[in-house]
Design a protein that fits this description.
The protein starts with a helix and ends in a 7-residue tail after the last helix. Helix 3 packs antiparallel against helix 4 and helix 4 packs across helix 5. It contains 8 helices and 4 strands. The longest helix has 13 residues. The chain has a 4-stranded mixed sheet, with helices on one face. It folds into 2 domains: about 70 residues, no CATH class; about 80 residues, Glutaredoxin, CATH 3.40.30.10. The relative contact order is 0.12. It binds FE2/S2 (inorganic) cluster. The site of FE2/S2 (inorganic) cluster has 12 residues, from helix 6.
């Protein structure tokens, strides 16, 4: 069982697994490879794997928390930090890289004042590099919460950012 004191050591507001996630875990519990499948689903739901969810996964699969974190830290795919409300994902697959994907990242970093894989202080924006998004014909591509912006030049970033800043909360 999980040590309750450990749970209180985190400053992150606990994210609770939904009944759907719990049912998914129950379904996968007896199957091989269940931990990775479950963590994928948790990340799909929250956009990352919250610490509180990692505890719950360990509880429900009846495995040590260290095993859960072993997988989470081994695979770079898993994110342990909450992304921004608007998640700017720049493709650095071959086509996008060759057409200036890295320049888009640099422009976003400059304009937002954050580095790669970090979140603005207000929690609104995060920047990350991702692998091929499957629309190489539109290279270079930027996805914002799954909405694709293609054939971009770094000069286009200011306009896109302004569009999302208009929707952002003053304080997230
Ligand atoms: S390389 Fe960027 S979408 Fe394929």
């Amino acid at each position: 069982m999980v040590n309750m004191e450990q749970r209180t050591l985190t400053s992150e507001a606990p994210e609770q697994l939904t009944p759907e996630l719990e049912a998914f875990i129950a379904e996968w519990k007896p199957k091989p490879g269940n931990l990775i499948m479950v963590l994928h689903r948790v990340q799909e739901h929250f956009g990352y794997v919250p610490r509180s969810a990692a505890f719950q996964v360990a509880d429900l699969l009846e495995i040590p928390l260290a095993k859960v974190y072993g997988v989470l830290t081994f695979y770079h795919f898993f994110k342990l930090k909450k992304p921004g409300r608007f998640r700017f994902a720049v493709c650095l697959g071959t086509a996008c890289y060759l057409k200036g994907g890295a320049d888009l990242i640099q422009e976003l970093e400059n304009m937002l004042g954050v580095g790669l894989n970090t979140v603005t202080e207000d929690g609104n924006f995060s920047v990350e590099a991702v692998r091929c998004l499957g629309c190489c014909g539109l290279a270079p591509v930027l996805s914002v919460n799954g909405t694709m912006h293609g054939a971009l030049r770094k000069e286009d970033i200011a306009g896109i950012l302004a569009e999302y800043k208009a929707k952002a909360r003053p304080e997230a």
